[in-house]
Design the sequence.
């Protein structure tokens, strides 16, 4: 299984402001949606899923295929799309996707989910869209985990005149 | 006074690992030293100054000109170079540099110092060197301040095949 992180952040590594808002660009969002559509297999955490419940269904990044939600809860409110819950963390999500015949997955956040995939060594590549913002008290991309992981910078490309996408390989 | 931040960070906005180590590239360090030499006026916080006391004197980024240290202490151990202490925060540093005839300063960290300059609106441009590392529990670039500041992305350039420098203007 090949696992991609798709992340948007401020220049100081915040994936949301202190209130949980993600004031990112339309170009970032369009790029994220296109990438999720291309891969056709999305994994996210329960809190991120609940964020999507508050948004228009057109914002759902994986309308055509199954999304796996990491949660210890036995059920979550439906959103009208195909979802499968797993209580078994990153390994559980990979296992579900494998059974569905997927060879690649996109991990769409949030920070607990990205952190747990990193801790378990289950990420191969990282796409990071950097938005032109400095957030004083935002939510950190990774937290509560003592890893120090070497990456290989592959490339950068502008998504707009203001948003730069960086692409890294995770060294193993 | 024109104020520049010169920062190196991991991809997730950490300016050091949890132990305070800064495992950045030689290219980042060379670029930082060259920029400090060009501007000839460096400001840093007391903790950053004390970090330099543990390093070879050849690492000192401002050997030719005066460096202003933000600290409430009446004295600090000398390091053999020209330093002036100010208890008056960013405004105090700017005032000292103005009296020395400086028109531009480089703020060289650490996170308390960068955060206080941001809070007081005393930064014009940001250079951010992004190193290919993901640090789980590192030191955040900004902390303890509730700002949300819009930047303008000016350019990016590779310092090496692995280190990318981003350059931003702070919108006012």
Sequence:
């Amino acid at each position: 299984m090949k696992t991609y992180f798709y992340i948007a952040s401020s220049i100081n590594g915040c994936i949301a402001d202190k209130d949980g808002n993600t004031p990112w660009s339309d170009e970032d969002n369009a790029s994220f949606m296109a990438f999720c559509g291309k891969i056709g297999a999305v994994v996210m955490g329960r809190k991120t899923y609940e964020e999507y419940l508050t948004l228009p269904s057109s914002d759902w990044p994986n309308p055509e295929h199954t999304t796996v939600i990491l949660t210890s809860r036995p059920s979550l409110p439906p959103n009208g799309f195909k979802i499968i819950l797993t209580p078994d963390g990153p390994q559980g999500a990979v296992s579900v996707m494998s059974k569905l015949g997927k060879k690649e997955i996109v991990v769409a956040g949030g920070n607990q989910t990205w952190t747990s995939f990193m801790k378990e060594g289950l990420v191969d590549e990282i796409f990071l869209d950097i938005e032109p913002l400095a957030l004083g008290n935002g939510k950190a991309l990774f937290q509560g985990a003592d890893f120090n992981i070497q990456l290989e910078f592959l490339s950068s490309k502008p998504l707009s005149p203001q948003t730069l996408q960086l692409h890294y390989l995770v060294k193993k």
Remarks:
- The interface with chain A takes residues 9-14, 17-18, 23, 115, 118-119, 126, 128, 130, 132-137, 140-153, 156, 161-164, 166, 168, 170 of chain B (CB under 8 Å).
- Residues 2-170 of chain B form a domain with the Dihydrofolate Reductase, subunit A fold (CATH 3.40.430.10).
